[in-house]
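Run log, item B.
One chain of 313 residues. Sequence copied directly from the ordering sheet:
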Amino acid sequence: MSVIHVESPGLLTTVQDLGREGFGPLGVSASGAADAVSLRLANRLAANPEDAAGLEMTLLGGTFGFPQGATIALTGSDFGATLDGAPLPLWKSMEVRTGQKLRVGSTRSGARCYLCVHGGIVVKPFLGSASTHLLSGLGGHHGRALRKGDVLHIGPPTASLEKRAVAAQVLEHLSPRKTLRVTPGPQNDLFPDAAQQLFYRSTYRVAEESNRMGLRLEGPHLTHGPSGEMVTEGVSVGAVQITAAGLPIILFVEQQTTGGYAKIANVIAADLHSLGQLRPRDEIRFEQVDWDIARALLVEQEKLLASDKLILE
């Protein structure tokens, strides 16, 4: 079996797939790729099923050796990757020869870069998924971020390989957004008009404390909303909670499955991948859309991701 040698792990590099759905009632959030669109596209380029496990690198990538070679694809944000010192393009499949070394540097754009390899990364599944759940220390590679000296196993080839690239017009359509579209949250009516107007006209900054559990935002305080905590209830990925201090938190892929803060809005499914590319100090805004538009945008995105025109060979 071919392997990847982790010579340098980067800041936070984990094994991720598309997550484990259906275990919220047991208190286990889905986890999975923070930018699922980029992971899906990387797997398409590497001739894998779109839910195959790959590597998610955050803000600073790592150095990886390929003693048997491999076919790889890098997607997501530009981390200035090189292969034996030569620049490596994003959004294309590339052949790595025996013994070559991939170096992935620090971000030049968004928060996360994805590395997929033909055959996928093989780890023991937890609740049917290869994704790493950092908070609980389960799944992925020993339930943790990668460390220097780790050896990752690559699955056997599953398809014939040809060089592939994502069409430029597709990348433009799927590029991450800084204006996040949202639908009203379940406690939207508890916020007076003044608080809602402030929320939608304000610019918020992503706080340093943000992580895969949630994105804490800095900006105007919504002081005219519900006071204190509510009775705990189930929460969804992308829910925008307003804390007792009046500041928003966007719940993300490793979010707690229940919460007691009022939720003014929820990021639509078609924009969830944009959350995965937000860095600390990035500025964002919110735009409210109705349910029909939210569904139509998701249908449009899924049709594009399934399109034969997505990949150029």
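Observations after the first pass:
- Residues 291-306 form the longest helix (16 residues).
- The chain has five helices and 23 strands.
Flagged for discussion on Thursday.
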